[in-house]
Write a structure and sequence with these properties.
By secondary structure, this protein is mainly alpha-helical. The protein folds into two domains: 55 residues, Arc Repressor Mutant, subunit A (Orthogonal Bundle); 125 residues, Tetracycline Repressor, domain 2. 70% of the residues lie in helices and 0% in strands. The chain has nine helices and no strands. The radius of gyration is 18 Å and the shape is elongated.
Amino acid sequence: MSTTTGRRLRADAERSIRTIMEAAERLLGENPAATMEQIAQAAGVARATIHRRFASREELVDTMTAAAWRDIAQAVQAARPQTAPPLVVLHQATANVLEIKTGWRFALAQSTPLGAEAQRIYGEVMSACDALFARAREAGLLRPDVDLDWTRRAYMALLSEAAHGAPITDDVDAVAARVVDTLMNGIGV
């Protein structure tokens, strides 16, 4: 993590920020109107500490959203999208991202436009997704005439609904398999 000046933060400062974001995710998920003071209390830090790290509630939420998208980008890369077989990547990336999305429900459910950092990372994730679906089409897993933009949008909708529609009570791998199966085979007979 770095400051807005680009300098690397000390390890204790990074831990403090992570603790604040985790408390904010938990508290704002329960009460979206929670104040910065309530978030500081939930994080176990002084109110001055939270205000030193985040100038406003909006900056805190922007930082949380960027952190969530950074975690998603790492989860996608962990699935080896350039080298593993496309169907394996799709399943593994789906399972990885479901794990991340369930931990960042509030941050990823924001209806406000993404901040610059989150927007940049989101673009990278969408590019990786597009490249994966292009590889899947080249491998004959998708029809040659399939609209890859529509495929990505349908996949993202399935993934979002699986992560945020209801709590995941099944094994994450089982939910990932259901998402991939629905995308690849539909729900018809």
